[in-house]
């Protein structure tokens, strides 16, 4: 039991890092949506988009950079779905919400969006081409 305010703060940080973040990284979209609705009671006064959903997307390191306040749009990614289909494009952070990913791609015939794709349907995400 924390005895001081400092110990209380440290206990909270330990709980967030040891329980809350790992839970977000493995929870289903349905469970994440339930948590979204109660997030201020669970996590405090933090925005769900910058905590809950980013932590959920961090299960796919190609989409997540710790310092960013959104999905990493810097690299083209290949999404492999659980049914083995593949999609390629750049994550669109503005269009991706509540565990639904949207990809943006361009070609000679124009630009297009793919998705939204549920976090539950994604098997893996990898960068396309070599990283510099």
Largest sheet: 5 strands, antiparallel
Overall average residue pLDDT: 90
H/E series: HHHHEEEEE
> Strand-residue fraction?
25-35%
Quaternary state of this entry equals single chain
> DSSP helix count?
4
Strand order of the largest sheet: 4-3-2-1-5
Report the principal-axis shape. Answer: elongated
Q: End-to-end span in angstroms?
A: 48 Å
- What is the tally of beta strands? 5
Structural class by sheet pairing and helices? alpha+beta
Indicate the low-confidence ranges by residue numbers. Answer: none
What value does the Rg take, in angstroms? 17 Å
Helix content: 25-40%
How would you describe this structure to a colleague?
It is a single chain. The chain is an alpha+beta fold. It is 32% helix and 26% strand. It is built from four helices and five strands; from the N terminus they run H-H-H-H-E-E-E-E-E. The protein has helices at 5-26, 29-37, 39-43, 52-57; strands at 77-81, 86-91, 100-107, 110-118, 122-127. The chain has a five-stranded antiparallel sheet with strand order 4-3-2-1-5, with no helix packed on it. The chain is elongated and about 65 Å long. The N and C termini lie far apart (48 Å). The mean pLDDT is 90.
Which features does this protein show?
alpha+beta; 4 helices; five-stranded antiparallel beta sheet; single chain; 132 residues
How would you summarize what this structure contains?
By secondary structure, this protein is of the alpha+beta class.
